[in-house]
Amino acid sequence: MKTMTCLQLGGACDKPFRANTFEEIAEMSKQHGMEMFQQQDAAHLAAIKKVQVMMSVPGAMEKWYETKRQEFESLPES
């Protein structure tokens, strides 16, 4: 298992996510983001806005995703 925080994944807090694959951790982060959106958490709303802006640039989201995947792969097992 590997651990990444919300902040490492582009979010706004230190909540840890633990998973065996990057896809699993990305899904956990997505669910957390949706919960924070529903709660209207200001810090997370700002982070979500940054992602939305990035998504408007062709290829930027794919590049970001691949960078985060590489970061996950380089982490030690925990």
Commentary on this structure:
The structure is a single chain. With 78 residues, the chain is mainly alpha-helical. It has one domain (2-74). It is built from three helices and two strands; from the N terminus they run E-E-H-H-H. The chain has helices spanning 22-38, 42-55, 60-74; strands spanning 2-5, 16-19. The protein has a two-stranded antiparallel ribbon with strand order 1-2. The model has no long low-confidence stretch (mean pLDDT 95).
Q: Could you say how many structural domains there are in total?
A: 1
Largest sheet: 2 strands, antiparallel
Q: In order across it, which strands form the biggest sheet?
A: 1-2
N→C terminal distance? 6 Å
Radius of gyration: 12 Å
User: What is the helix/strand order?
Assistant: EEHHH
Percent helix, as a range, is 55-70%
Count every beta strand, where a strand is a DSSP E run of 2 or more residues. Answer: 2
- Low-pLDDT parts are none
The number of helices is 3
Beta-strand fraction estimate:
5-15%
| Overall form | globular
Q: Structural class, from helix and strand content?
A: mainly alpha
Q: Report the mean per-residue pLDDT as an integer.
A: 95
Give a quick set of tags describing it:
59% helix; two-stranded antiparallel sheet; 78 residues; mainly alpha; 3 helices; globular; 10% strand; DUF1059 domain-containing protein
Question: Could you give a short description of this structure?
Answer:
By secondary structure, the chain is mostly helical.
